[in-house]
Amino acid sequence: EVGEPFKEEKAVAKYLRFNCPTKSTNMMGHRVDYFIASKAVDCLLDSKWAKAKKGEEALFTTRESVVDYCNRLLKKQFFHRALKVMKMKPDKDIKKEKEKGKAESGKEEEKKSKKESGKDEKTKKEKEKKKDGEKEECKKDETPGTPKKKETKRKFKLKPHEDQIFLDGNEVYVWIYDPVHFKTFAMGLVLVIAVIAATLFPLWPAEMRVGVYYLSVGAGCFVASILLLAVARCILFLIIWLITGGRHHFWFLPNLTADVGFIDSFRPLYTHEYKGPKADSKKEEKSESKKQQKCDSEEKSDSEKKEEDDGKTEATRNSGTDGSGGERHSDTDSDRREDDRSQHSSGNGNDFEMITKEELEQQTDEEDCEEEEEEDTESRPSHEKS
Fold first, then answer.
1. How far is residue 69's CA from residue 45's CA, in Å, rounded to a whole number?
2. Which residues of the chain register pLDDT less than 50?
3. In this structure, are 160 and 264 located in the same domain?
4. Is residue 268 part of a domain?
5. What is the largest CA-CA distance in the chain?
6. Pair (22, 81) in one structural domain
7. Same domain, 178 and 265
8. 44: exposed, middle or buried (C-beta count within 10 Å: 0-12, 13-18, 19+)?
9. Where do the H-state alpha helices sit in 119-173?
């Protein structure tokens, strides 16, 4: 036998009812509120009962302690366990979808057979290109910046579960305990008192009745003055607009009828706009100035690019001159001879010539003779000086 709930249990259940996130759905033809077990455990672990007081231990220290306490609440019928049952589509809709799928598949097969008979290698290549393009588009769609398609949520119903146990997880529990919130209770109490006071108005003292009369007259005058102001500001706008030929737009209390707070509806006091030829010329000047700024920025970017190109060409020229100077100093007699040979070959019109062994021996003999003559010339002045 289950006894009546204690005050502490009622307080915990009330806290859980108004602080744990709940959702509503249909169950056995009735609208009910349900919650998930794991969220209820998290909610109670963040409550005041999870903090130790002076001289007392905390009621909830671990998730297991919360589960045990919730089992007590379930036995005392604050809520009960339910089972999710997904709504199945009717047989007619399923048959229609199957028939549509078969018809579409048959049409696609016929199209494929016709295309394969009349297609050549070029069409196959085009198919491959299209597939590559589709893959790239799919990759682009999968990027984190692109918005994803909305997923259709499957509808479900709730049914009472056979095993009435509280488990920490994604289990669903339906609320039976439905206390009245303090705000709704206070609002209802105020409305009841106001109705009773209005019905007992003839029994009020004379001074109170006179005071209420003047308050009602003042409220009526205030509402009437606001309505008159709204009409007067429209008339003033029309007069100024007609006199100035539509150039001046003057609004007194522009936010009077706007969807704002009571104080903001009286500020600013007025607004004025001039819509004439000067205003158009100013707009044109602003647009022209923006265009000039864009052109200047583009010219600057072009000039910077030209300067960079000039700097690169100068650097290449300097490197070329340095290299040529070094080569001039490093030129030898053998290089000159090779140049002469290349000129000789280019004069004949052929880049390469076939040389026989005899010609090679003659050339080597000539080079040896020239070297001996140079050595003799160098040795002669030294003997003369001696």
1. 12
2. 140, 142-151, 319-332, 344-352, 381-386
3. no
4. yes
5. 157
6. yes
7. no
8. buried
9. 121-141
Spatial separation of the C-alpha atoms in residues 339 and 355, rounded to whole Å: 17
* CATH number where 39 lies: 1.10.10.10
Give strand ranges (E) for the chain.
Answer: 23-27, 30-36, 79-86, 156-160, 172-175, 248-252, 270-274
Closest by alpha carbon to 14, among 57, 49, 51, 60?
49
* Length of the chain (residues): 386
Q: 68 with 172, same domain?
A: yes
**Which pTM does this prediction carry?**
0.42
Q: Is 37 exposed, middle or buried (0-12, 13-18, 19+ CB in 10 A)?
A: buried
Domain that includes residue 79, residue range = 7-89+154-182
Residue with tokens 């590559």: 132
Task: Please indicate, yes or no, whether residues 250 and 169 belong to a single structural domain of this protein.
Answer: no
Q: How far apart are CA 384 and CA 373, in angstroms?
A: 17
Q: How many domains does the chain have?
A: 2
Radius of gyration of the chain (CA): 49
Per-residue pLDDT tens for 48-61? 988 887 777 888 98
CB under 8 Å to 23, separation ≥6 — which residues?
A: 33, 34, 35
Burial of 73 (0-12, 13-18, 19+ CB in 10 A): buried
CA distance 59 to 9: 11
| Cα 211 from Cα 209, distance rounded (Å) | 5
3-state secondary structure of 266: helix
Distance CA 240, CA 114 (A): 76
252 within 8 A of 279, measured Cβ to Cβ: no
